[in-house]
Amino acid sequence: MRALVILLFALGAVSSAHAAEVRRLALFVGVNDGGPERVRLRYAETDAKAFALVLSELGGVLPQDRVLLMDVDRAGVLAGFDRVRKLAEGVRAAGARRVEVLLYYSGHSDDEGLLLKGQRLDYGELRRSLEGLPADVRIAVLDSCASGAFARKKGGVARPAFLVDSGIQVKGHAILTSSSANEASQESDRLGGSFFTHHLLSGLRGAADVTHDGRVTLTEAYQFAFHETLARTERTQGGAQHPNYDIELAGTGDLVMTDLRATTAGLVLTEPLEGRLYVRDAVGTLVVEVQKVSGRATELGLAPGAYRARRELDGGVSETAFTLKEGMRTPLAPGDFLGVGHEATVMRGGGGGATAPLSPQGRTLLPVNLSLVPSMSTNTLRAGRAQVENRFALGVVNGGAALGGGLALGLAGNVYDAEVSGLAMALGFNTSGREVDGAQLSLVANVAGGAVRGAQATLGLNVANGDVDGVGQLALGANVARGSLGGMQAALGANVTTADATGVQLSLGVNHANGTLKGVQFALGHNSVAKAARGIQGSVLLNRAPSLTGMQLGLINVGGDVSGMQLGLINIADTVHGMQLGLVNVSDEVHGVPVGLVTYEKKGQLHLEVYGSDVQLTNLALKFGGRHFYTTLLAGIGPDDRFQRFSLGLGLGGHIPLGSRFWVDVDVAGSQVLSTRDPFSGRSNTLLTQARAMLGFQVMPKLAVFAGPTYNAAFTWGEPEFTKLTTLPVRTHTLDADTRMQRWPGFQVGVRL
């Protein structure tokens, strides 16, 4: 029993000007726990995250327009609907011409409703919540047991696997279900998810693009998922699964689900390629499954990164590894695949003498190589200039075409023209013309011509001219990955990756990811990210990220859109959803808590107040900060004491709105009381501390009046310059032989400009 998927929907294939007026909102819910009487699912939450990823990459759903909920109960799902409703109302009020909603739920259900951690959300309430969203189009996809019952609630009946395209002008709803009203929906350990969701996502990534126009419509996605799900479940223990639907749409044009051109990278399955293909990402997750037919090219929309593909054809199995780079379409042809599990062959002919066997890559397989330099080695003596592959190499400088799953020990270095699979160790340097699948260990430098899946460790420099996955790069000098990072970079000097970084960068100097960071950066010097950071940036000096979800911890933190926390002496950001905690906080807008000695928010408070009090007749206060927290600078002087004293102070407080016109400010402040006769003598020995409450009334947008009580405590040392600061009665306390305190309740009245 499985995933309820809700709401997937559509992209309008119209002009870019019109597309700019469309906002797509999405709610994704994944719940493994259906209650004590239900078997706990393994992949409901995984499916919800995968669905959200595809729609973010290819479906036009912006990060701020999606709500992702994991392991929630009935109230949590309804709260998610409420959040989406408020988002829809906001974008509608902002002038969006068209609002489209996508909702996905993955979890348990029966023929009456969703089963959430022992609670039921019946289909009637679910439909009302869906119809209550202020959107032009609502699409629900239910991947759960007996989910066809939801599609039938308004008269839907089982139909063949066919949908009529509607499109950008369409209004109404479409509900797709993974099974009929009396069928179980199934998930698979081999797929790492449900059958229906897996095949639907494969279709959305391009496997369903039968028209080869770079876009996947609702019709194409449903037909692909229907046939693949039915075919792959006919022999399972749960029995055949028949996806179903209920459509009430009206309009013209195609309802586009995903646009493959939206991704910055792509995989092109060339015309000659055929067979069933399984594409997995760098961590082994199955992202696409497709039956490729020879004669027509197929494009799949995938994010940049490292992948492996497995092909099944005519009983044989072959594999290949490849890297998708940003801004490029990478072709995959039959010649890129190598057989899996084939034995080495022996070449016959020309007198019947046997030659060395060949590796699966077609190289001469020489298990052992002994060398002084590559040109003076057993490889050269036995194979001449032929491409060779070794399992073990020992010498001053080892060299050859490739190291295949073995060990190379070089006194000075190891130099390979092709890939290194295994361990290369040298006192000097290691170089590989292509990827490294294993480790390079040296004292001076390691260089890989392609991706590194494993580790590079040196006292000097590590360079990978491709992606780095695995343990990562460790150096006292510097680490450079000319691709993405999926692991760790640790150096005393600098760590640099020219693409995304998923993992950890640690250095005493500089860390830089020229893409998106998902993980941790720690440095004594400088951390920077070119695109976005999701994790933690920590440094003694400076952290920079155009977009941050997580935390920045450093002397100076600079962020664009920050969701999380900035903790430092100086924090600078555009929009903050969370907290700024520092000596100085600067931002355009804060949805949260800015706490600092000096806080400036462009869309927050900036007021000048003029007021009188029992301490001094004339006072000025400059208040600035966020919407609810502020810093105030105070200055006052009074003609009542013949201008003999003045005060300068600083306060911190909070602002509480009371409706549209009234408000309350509460703060604490401290002021130094100085003599006007000799203000710079340094002899001032009076400190005034105050707790203040101000009730204000907004007369007009730029004018308010306020009044309120204060509680004052004045501390004096030695011979006080001023014996009393107020005309009101005070209580005097002697704290020690040299220190006295006066305290009293007071008042203040003023205007705010």
TrEMBL record:
Protein name per Swiss-Prot or TrEMBL: Caspase family protein
InterPro entries, sorted: LA_2272-like, Pept_C14_caspase
Keywords assigned: Signal
One GO MF term: cysteine-type endopeptidase activity
Key word Signal present: yes
Signal peptide: 1-19
Pfam families xref list: Peptidase_C14
Gene3D superfamilies: 3.40.50.1460
Organism: Corallococcus aberystwythensis
UniProt keyword Signal, yes or no: yes
GO biological process, one term: proteolysis
Ranges for domain Peptidase C14 caspase: 23-245
Cited NCBIfam families: LA_2272_repeat
